[in-house]
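seq:
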Amino acid sequence: MRETQGTAPERRAWWRGHVGHILLIWAGITVAGVLFGLFLPPRLMPQPASGTMHEVRLTVIVFTVAAAPVAALVWGIALYSLVVWRHRSSDVPPEDGPPIRGNTTVQVAWLFVSSFLTLFLLVWGLGELQAISAQASPKPLVVDVVGQQWMWTYAYPQDGGVQSATLVLPVGRSILFRVTSKDVVHSFWIPNMGIKIDANPGVTTEVGVTPDQLGVFNVRCAELCGLYHAYMESAVQVVSGSAFTAWVRANGGRVG
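struct:
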């Protein structure tokens, strides 16, 4: 940096000479970050097959947009420093410019902005948790999920104890998964439905979801669980209510 020792007005004038350029860079990167947050996550994330996944995708978009101005400020100052304040000669670099550690205006502005963003993210997160919880039905379809190296098995205790290596779910009905493991820690993950929960030996964990799209989706293990972890993948079929009833009866069960 150039040497900027001098009176307070001189230091303020030195900063004003650079702040405008930094703000222009900040504005450009902020716009790019906002556009990135609005358009890219929906194309990179799985197609939603439940209300939960819709909320997850919306949260990712909102958090990305909210983070864009903060990230742009860091990147803007870094880029400006590399281009404008870089020492190019072989001489000994001059002293640093005036510090901002004791700048009351900057400190107050940073405290206000960071507090606002933290409060906003907290309120948003609590609201989304409440919205997801409100989707649950008081009488869900219970599915017992067991992970083992390297497959998932499913049982339907309310439907005569039907067991299957393929997960079949009725569309539009609240589901409660009770998840455990026979050997090591696995992680039960349905990307399109936005749910993921650990399967722990000797412990039952629970997670709920309501599928809202017909189709065939993937069930994956999201915890490194051994040699064939990458192949611990199966299908979940979301079918109509009548098709689910027919499937239960065809497998020797009865609809609860």
